[in-house]
Each structure stands twice: as C-alpha cells, then as structure tokens.
C-alpha cells in the first residue's frame, strides 16, 4: 500500500506539496475509508444478528399461538381437567392427557437411566482413555448412530430388540424383582421397557458427542496438576475433568432428554399405543408424540383434532420447561464453581 502511494505521488502530483505531506494525506484518507467501512459494517452485522434472534423468538411464539388457537375447542370444553383425566375415548368424545404425559415421562426416565452412564463412559473413553487414532474412529462410529432414521430404529426394535428383551431380559427381571409392580405382569415384545431402551439408544450419540467435546476442552494443565500430585487416572478424571465439565454434562443430558421427549415414529412402533396408566414396565402404553402421530390423520370430530393439538401444546410446554430447568441447573453449577474457587 505504501509503495502504491509513493508512485501515485511521483506520477500525479499537480500541487507543489512535499512528499511527506502527500503521504500523510494518503494515510489519513485510507484510515477514513477503513473507519467508514467499519462504522457501516458493524451496525449492519449487529442488526442481522439481532433480527435473527428475534425471528427465532417470533417463530416460537407463532407456533405456540397457532397451537393455542387450534386447541381452543378442547381447552374450552375440558379446561384444566384435560391434564388430569385418564379417559381417552374418541367414540364418546372424552379426552384426557394424563396417560400420555405419564408414558412420556416414564419412557424418558428409562432412557435417561440407561443412556447417561453409557454416554459418560463413551465420552471418557474417547477423550481420556483411547489413543488418538482409535478415538477418531470410535467417535465417527458413535456420531453415525445419530444419522440413522427413526423408522430404521423402530423396525430394528420390532424384529430384534423387542423379542430379545421379552425372551432374555424381562424373564430375569420378573424372576428376581417380580414382587415390585414395575416388573410384574405378562411379558410382551412391545411395551414401555422396549420404548425406553430404544430411546436410550437414540439419545446416546447426542449426549456422548457433547460430553466428549466438553471433556476435550478441559485445560491440560488441570490433568497434569492432578497427576503430578500422585492421582491415578480415575482420580484425575474425578477431580479435574468431571467437575470442570459439569455444566456441559448437564447441557448434554438435557439435549438428549429433549430428543427422547419428542421422538415419535420409533416409539409409536414399539410402545404398544394403549392410552392407559400401568405400573408395569412390560405393559403397553403411549406417549404424547406417538398418539398424535397415530391418531391425528384419523381424527373423527373437531373436538378430537383439538384434543390432539392440545397434546402438542402440552409437549411444547414440557420442552420449554425442560429448557428453562437446564438453564437454571447450568447457571447454578457455574455459580457454585466460581464461589468455590473464590
């Protein structure tokens, strides 16, 4: 740039100004152009970012408003009792959401109980234990699980997972823990347990991938300090890695739980689709997402369609509550960490 300014001054200098003055004018003009570009670009970029954020909020508000409008016949007819009623009878136009809320909560809880320890184990293996060449290959295989379509998971659960649980796992649970209502009753290949296990398999790659990234950003100095003080590999992970990544682990678990709450096709194929509350995990049940997928196209009356849309509104509310709870947990964890450090 400086060389170009020199040549312009030498060849095109109509005024009788000194070389130093011309260079100062060139520099001042360049800075003014840069300042003008920055002063225009920064507000433009900020406006795009702020607009994008408000567009997301507007979309969420629009979805919620549309659900409320379409579900208004059901809201007016049933009121708050819709959430507490266990009756779901399209022939009599009587609808209650409690069996589906129960099915969603229990199947997601089963998925969490199975998937969280496995996800943490996979993440620790990939980030702390496995050599780099093996970690890359295993990480790719874990991520590949997230790319499998839900319907493929459902078909595999129908023909492989469900019969295997019925013939090998459920008899053991029934023999040793049959006195508990959770593991009592007839054993079938479709039911709450099968749905919970398939949800655990589906949420595992999301939770494991996020936890792996969280563990990998832990400063290496923390690991070295723990090892230098005589800690074993497990003690180093327990004292240096896990506490540092607690907020990220909570976020990963909530991400996987959101995946489990909203899963539709695979759950609808293996849960049995019975609108009833049963204490046994072997019994068929239903979730908010699965009943919407199964019955919305065949809704017989306006009230039936409105009740199904209200179930979607309940599912949206559950997702929002889950998000807010995740934020509170993460903020609380961060504050405790900094207060402890202080």
Walk me through the structure:
By secondary structure, this protein is mainly α. The protein contains 13 helices and no strands. The chain has 2 domains: 19-70; 81-341, MetI-like (MetI-like fold). Residues 4-16 have low confidence and may be disordered. Helix 3 (72-78) crosses helix 13, helix 4 (98-129) runs parallel beside helix 7 (192-216) and helix 7 runs antiparallel to helix 10. The radius of gyration is 29 Å and the shape is globular.
Provide a concise account of the structure shown.
By secondary structure, the chain is mostly helical. 75% of the residues lie in helices and 0% in strands. It has helices spanning 2-11, 19-70, 72-78, 98-129, 132-145, 150-177, 192-216, 220-228, 233-241, 246-262, 265-270, 288-295, 302-341.
Q: Please trace the helix and strand order, writing H or E for each element.
A: HHHHHHHHHHHHH
CATH topology annotation of the largest domain:
MetI-like fold
Architecture of the largest domain in CATH? Orthogonal Bundle
**According to CATH, what is the class of the largest domain?**
Mainly Alpha
- On the 0 to 100 scale, the average pLDDT is 86
Radius of gyration: 29 Å
Count of helical regions:
13
Total count of strands: 0
Characterize the largest beta sheet: strand count, sense, and whether it forms a barrel. none
Helix coverage percent of residues?
A: over 70%
Task: Name the structural class.
Answer: mainly alpha
What form results from the Cα inertia axes? globular
Strand content: under 5%
Q: Supply the CATH superfamily name of the largest domain.
A: MetI-like
C-alpha termini separation: 50 Å
Uncertain ranges: 4-16
Q: What is the total domain count?
A: 2
């Amino acid at each position: 740039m400086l060389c170009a300014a020199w040549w312009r001054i030498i060849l095109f200098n109509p005024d009788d100004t000194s070389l130093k003055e011309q260079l100062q004018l060139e520099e001042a003009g360049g800075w003014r152009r840069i300042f003008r570009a920055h002063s225009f670009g920064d507000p433009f970029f900020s406006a795009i970012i702020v607009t994008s954020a408000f567009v997301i909020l507007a979309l969420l508000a629009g979805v919620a408003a549309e659900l409320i409008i379409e579900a208004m016949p059901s809201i007016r007819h049933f009121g708050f009792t819709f959430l507490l009623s266990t009756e779901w009878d399209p022939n009599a136009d009587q609808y209650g959401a409690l069996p589906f809320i129960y099915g969603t909560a229990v199947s997601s809880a089963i998925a969490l109980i199975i998937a969280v320890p496995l996800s943490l184990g996979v993440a620790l293996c990939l980030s702390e234990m496995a050599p780099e060449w093996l970690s890359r290959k295993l990480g790719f295989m874990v991520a590949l699980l997230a790319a499998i379509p839900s319907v493929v998971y459902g078909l595999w659960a129908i023909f492989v997972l469900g019969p295997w649980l019925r013939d090998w796992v459920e008899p053991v649970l029934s023999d040793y823990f049959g006195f508990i209502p959770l593991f009592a009753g007839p054993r079938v290949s479709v039911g709450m347990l099968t749905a919970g296990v398939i949800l655990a398999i589906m949420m595992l790659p999301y939770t494991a991938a996020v936890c792996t990234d969280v563990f990998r950003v832990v400063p290496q100095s923390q690991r070295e300090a723990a090892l230098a003080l005589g800690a074993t590999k497990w003690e180093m992970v327990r004292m240096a890695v896990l506490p540092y990544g607690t907020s990220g682990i909570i976020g990963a678990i909530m991400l996987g739980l959101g995946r489990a709450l909203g899963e539709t096709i695979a759950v609808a194929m293996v849960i049995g689709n019975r609108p009833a509350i049963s204490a046994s995990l072997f019994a068929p049940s239903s979730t908010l997402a699965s009943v919407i997928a199964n019955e919305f196209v065949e809704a017989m009356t306006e009230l039936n369609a409105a009740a199904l849309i209200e179930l979607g509104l309940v599912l949206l509310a559950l997702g929002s509550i889950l998000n807010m709870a995740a934020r509170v947990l993460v903020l609380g964890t961060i504050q405790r960490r900094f207060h402890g450090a202080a």
